[in-house]
Design brief:
Distance between the termini of chain B: 41 Å
Structural class of chain A: mainly beta
Order of helices and strands of chain A: EEEEEEEEEEE
Structural class of chain B: mainly beta
Radius of gyration of chain B: 14 Å
Oligomer: heterodimer
Largest interface: A-B, 25 and 23 residues
Radius of gyration of chain A: 13 Å
Shape of chain B: globular
Number of helices of chain A: 0
Chain lengths: 112, 112
């Protein structure tokens, strides 16, 4: 199994509060991705990174920002959480753009 | 536009064979991936096709026809533990991003 962890695993927060989710990998993979998974929508890409300090938007990036200051860490921030951001968030890593992605265990976020 | 279609649910009997179909439409194509996801868990990689034809890996096989925008996952000798969601994902867009577009997933129920 790929060495990829996410923290926290579960979080309940209130509308309007900032939230940061962390993805940590020990594989030294170049590519990292943040997805959200919701019933009826499948997995949707929020942001991705193709190297340290190199990030780009996915299909549902509004309300989210990311940072990658080290190869092993990719942070996802919700600046002001809304109820529509209640979801399960998965981080994924890939050795290269043409290789399969490996997923972390997920973070279940509830915004009340 | 970009779209992935797969059936929402399927039911099969233990020991049987089941085929899960997937059609895709993407701007650019960098391969077709299949993932398995058990309830409450992260997706795990099953197979990858980038050229036309059949790829076999134990009880699982995956087929791709690029001209038809079509793939299927074939599961043989079904076991109860194969009850899960199966996600079809197409690599789309420019080749240096590794971005995947996921279908909503097919929930497979294996019955005794």
């Amino acid at each position: 199994d790929a060495g990829i962890t996410q923290s926290p695993r579960h979080k309940v927060t209130e509308t309007g509060t900032p939230v940061t989710l962390r993805c940590h990998q020990t594989e030294n993979h170049r590519y990292m991705y943040w997805y959200r998974q919701d019933p009826g929508h499948g997995l949707r890409l929020i942001h991705y990174s193709y190297g340290v300090k190199d990030t780009d938007k996915g299909e549902v990036s509004d309300g989210y920002s990311v940072s990658r200051s080290k190869t092993e860490d990719f942070l996802l921030t919700l600046e002001s959480a809304t109820s529509s951001q209640t979801s399960v968030y998965f981080c994924a890593i890939s050795r290269d753009s043409s290789y399969e992605q490996y997923f972390g265990p997920g973070t279940r976020l509830t915004v009340t | 536009g970009q779209n992935i279609d797969q059936p929402t649910e399927m039911t099969a009997t233990e020991g049987a064979i089941v085929q899960i179909n997937c059609t895709y439409q993407t701007s650019g194509f960098n391969g077709l991936f299949w993932y398995q996801q058990h309830a409450g868990e992260a997706p795990t990689f099953l197979s990858y096709n980038v050229l036309d034809g059949l790829e076999e890996k134990g009880r699982f096989s995956s087929f791709l026809s690029r001209s038809k925008g079509y793939s299927y996952l074939l599961l043989k000798e079904l076991q109860m533990k194969d009850s899960a969601s199966y996600l079809c994902a197409a690599g789309g867009g420019s080749s240096n991003t590794g971005k995947l577009i996921f279908g909503q997933g097919t929930t497979l129920q294996v019955k005794p």
